[in-house]
Design brief:
alpha/beta, QueA-like, Thrombin, subunit H, 2 domains, nine-stranded mixed β-sheet, 8 helices, 29% strand
Length: 350
């Protein structure tokens, strides 16, 4: 398939710029068989079954955006793509002229002046070496990196709401946004229904917002993202299978980590690794039975992923429906609960 097969027209006013006052107030579009259902996130417990397993991504978004100066005095904006050690990072960099290898960048103020050396360039990313540990630098001088389609600078509301309530392991530069819909009350209702939960970690990189630039999808190369699969998650999935429950990935990040960590027989392997898995129509899913996800950008790898999971024509119909019914799109937008491609007439969601 071609990149242009995944295009659609979206009115600008459907791009959610701010979160709703309540996390679990979002709308939920269900896609089961060929049937579409207009629901609310608060109905999710009734759409799942006792014995199902929800898999969450517990990554925490770091304050990955820095503003500083080059030695010439020119302004520079840095977005950390991935930490590569205590003091080294792979970054996206914006300035009037790209800095050369060996040059220095300055961040902070007279109270704490931080210096980073430009070590080199790898494709569209720069590698920077800081003169102190990055954890402290980002916490004191960094800003939350909201997605490029959100038009306001991050504020105190975003500092809270662009994190999931279970965010624990720092390292992401973008939120696993399907998880933003969950609050404590919804999690309690899920537990009361006998639905289990488990976590993995995948640190979402800024590459998630980089568009596919080649029309032939076989030529696209994904940016690597690091993930960790704990033994407790593997045990939980095995127990779920034993009781005929379903594995429900909360977000495309959870799905990609699970599929990346599984072999051809669907057996998961614990530990930490990197993934460049690019899921397009024709991919055979081995672990995930249902997917909860937000609405994705046109021509994006994530739209290609959900099209692989549910079928291209079904996703096209669902997105047309969502636009007609004025669902909110992207990170602060509404959600979908999707069943995979199955036999005609078979449904998995009530």
């Amino acid at each position: 398939m071609r990149r242009t097969d995944f295009d659609f027209e979206l009115p600008d006013d459907l791009i959610a710029q701010h979160p709703l006052p309540q996390r679990s107030a979002s709308r939920l579009l269900t896609l089961s068989g060929d049937a579409l259902g207009d629901r609310r996130i608060g109905e999710l417990p009734s759409l799942l079954r006792e014995g199902d397993l929800l898999v969450f991504n517990d990554t925490r978004v770091i304050k990955a955006r820095l503003f500083g100066l080059k030695a010439s005095g020119g302004r520079v904006e840095v977005l950390v793509e991935r930490l590569e050690g205590a003091r080294r990072a792979r970054v996206q960099l914006r300035s009037s002229h790209s800095p050369k290898a060996g040059s220095a960048l300055r961040f902070g103020d007279d109270g704490e002046r931080v210096t980073a050396s430009v070590m080199g360039r790898e494709g569209e990313f720069f590698v920077l070496e800081f003169d102190r540990d990055l954890d402290g630098v980002l916490e004191r001088h960094g800003h939350l990196p909201l997605p490029p389609y959100i038009e306001h600078a991050a504020d105190v509301i975003d500092d809270e709401r662009y994190q999931t309530v279970w965010a624990k392991v720092p390292g992401a530069v973008a939120a696993p946004t399907a998880g933003l819909h969950f609050d404590v009350a919804l999690l309690d209702a899920i537990a009361a229904r006998g639905i289990e939960t488990a976590t993995l970690t995948l640190h979402v990189g800024a590459g998630t917002f980089v568009p596919v630039r080649v029309d032939d999808l076989s030529e696209h190369v994904m940016h690597e993202e690091r993930y960790t699969i704990p033994r407790s998650l593997i045990d939980a999935i095995e127990a779920t299978r034993a009781r005929d429950g379903r594995v429900v990935a909360v977000g495309t990040t959870s799905l990609r980590a699970l599929e990346s960590a599984s072999d051809d027989a669907g057996q998961l392997h614990e530990g930490e690794a990197g993934t460049r898995l690019f899921i397009t129509p024709g991919y055979r899913f081995k672990v995930v039975d249902l997917l909860l996800t937000n609405f994705h950008l046109p021509q994006s790898t994530l739209l290609m992923l959900v099209s692989a999971f549910a079928g291209v024509d079904r996703i096209r119909a669902a997105y047309r429906h969502a636009i007609e019914r004025r669902y909110r799109f992207f990170s602060y937008g509404d959600a979908m609960l999707i069943q995979p491609v199955i036999q005609p007439g078979q449904t998995l969601i009530p």
